[in-house]
Design goal:
The chain has 376 residues and is of the alpha+beta class. The protein has one domain (6-374): L-amino peptidase D-ALA esterase/amidase (4-Layer Sandwich). It has helices spanning 98-104, 119-133, 169-178, 241-245, 274-290, 329-349, 366-374; strands at residues 6-10, 45-53, 65-73, 82-91, 106-107, 111-115, 150-154, 196-197, 200-201, 204-213, 216-227, 235-236, 239-240, 261-268, 300-307, 312-314, 317-319, 353-354, 360-361. Helix 2 packs across helix 3 and helix 5 (274-290) crosses helix 6. It is globular, with a radius of gyration of 20 Å. The model is unreliable at 1-17 (pLDDT under 50).
Length: 376
């Protein structure tokens, strides 16, 4: 079948284009930052490239196409490694570059989120892009920018021609070049374009929290590429949505289907060392649990956390600041809350989508959510 429509969506949005979960009156704990987004962390830049074209039966290599890539720069488009760590709750997925991150305690270059089959091309694209745009600086941390790129994936094969390899080097370059500070789109965009959570359409979501420790104030943000969970598991503020809404489960024409996965990126301006960021990354699991996720056997639930607070260099010595371990409880709490809300924002921002073989996944009803939480 010929392609019926082709359009591309990039991250030139000046604000959030869709509703978010708080807009529907859903009460959530904590105080968000100004944007309620990972972009609240100074220096963070996010960009998407979204690929949507074609309709009808799957023809591998032609479509229909429902996919993309999302680029996240922790400190802007500069060669500036930041303290980081990662954690795998369940490892049926991929996040490249993690062995070097574990070894050094630093994240070099951007993070790319995309679909399962596009990890290799995205990794290679980051290396090529970095060689063109990131020049090494005087640093004991990194002389070869993005030499071991960090690329995460979730499986969009319910709606997308996954084996068609439509995320090319050039498209990853677009996501990288589109990255900018400030608000960015959520839902059916970037790496989240073809993703599904709890049998509802989902995708990219974000949220943030303000933190106060003593007299110091910090921010923590979460970005998720959400593609996990079964309908009966979804919990919003302790309410089982399947039992209340009784929405039909999508009937999908697939030869095989995975349980799905979730990649979560946590960023903060709080001064934390890599081993402390590992502790933060682990707390993402509790945020996923709050919306009902159980981390299925075939789910890739993989998380990364970074701090934008770099060590200072004095002669040949790196001087670090860090919050004492005994003062980290509010950071843990913020991580859990921001993760929960980012997942819900991914659901609320998404719109229904038809993909390969006329597979259709509906979005969660805004009106039902509004009614449920305005009339508890």
């Amino acid at each position: 079948m010929k392609h019926l429509f082709i359009f591309f969506v990039f991250s030139f949005f000046t604000g959030h284009c869709f509703s978010r979960v708080r807009d529907l009156g859903v009460p959530l704990p904590g105080t968000p930052g100004k944007l309620n987004s990972l972009a609240d962390i100074q220096g963070v830049e996010v960009g998407h490239v979204t690929l949507i074209s074609g309709a009808g039966p799957l023809i591998i290599g032609k479509g229909p196409i429902r996919t993309g890539a999302t680029a996240i720069f922790p400190k802007g488009k500069v060669n500036s490694p930041v303290p980081a760590a990662w954690f795998s709750l369940n490892g049926n997925g991929e996040l490249t570059g993690t062995t070097w991150m574990e070894e050094t305690g630093f994240l070099d270059g951007p993070i790319i989120l995309t679909n399962t089959n596009s990890v290799g091309v995205a990794r290679d694209a980051v290396q090529s892009w970095a060689n063109l745009h990131l020049t090494p600086k005087e640093s004991t941390l990194s002389d070869d920018p993005a030499s071991l790129p960090v690329v995460g994936e979730t499986w969009d094969g319910r709606l997308n021609d996954l084996r068609g390899n439509h995320v090319t080097k050039e498209k990853v370059f677009e996501a990288l070049n589109n990255a900018k500070p400030g608000p960015f789109a959520e839902g059916n965009v970037g790496g989240g374009t073809g993703m599904v959570s709890f049998a509802y359409k989902s995708g990219i979501g974000t949220s943030s929290r303000q933190i106060q420790i003593g007299k110091e104030k910090y921010l923590l943000g979460a970005l998720v590429q959400s593609n996990f969970g079964t309908r009966d598991e979804l919990q919003i503020n302790g309410k089982n949505i399947a039992k209340i809404f009784k929405d039909p489960i999508p009937k999908l024409n697939l030869s095989s289907q995975k349980d799905g996965s979730i990649i979560v990126v946590i960023g903060t301006d709080a001064p934390l060392l890599s081993h402390q960021l590992k502790r933060v990354a682990k707390r993402v699991s509790l945020g996923i649990g709050k919306v009902g996720g159980i981390s299925h056997d075939s789910s890739g639930d993989i998380f990364i956390a970074f701090s934008s607070k770099e060590p200072k260099k004095k002669k040949q010595i790196l001087v670090y600041e860090s919050i004492p371990n005994e003062e980290m409880d509010e950071i843990f709490r913020a991580t859990i809350e921001a993760t929960e809300e980012a997942i819900l924002n991914a659901l609320v921002a998404a719109t229904g989508m038809t993909g390969i073989n006329e597979n259709r996944v509906e979005a969660i009803s805004h009106e039902k959510l509004r009614t449920l939480f305005q009339n508890p």
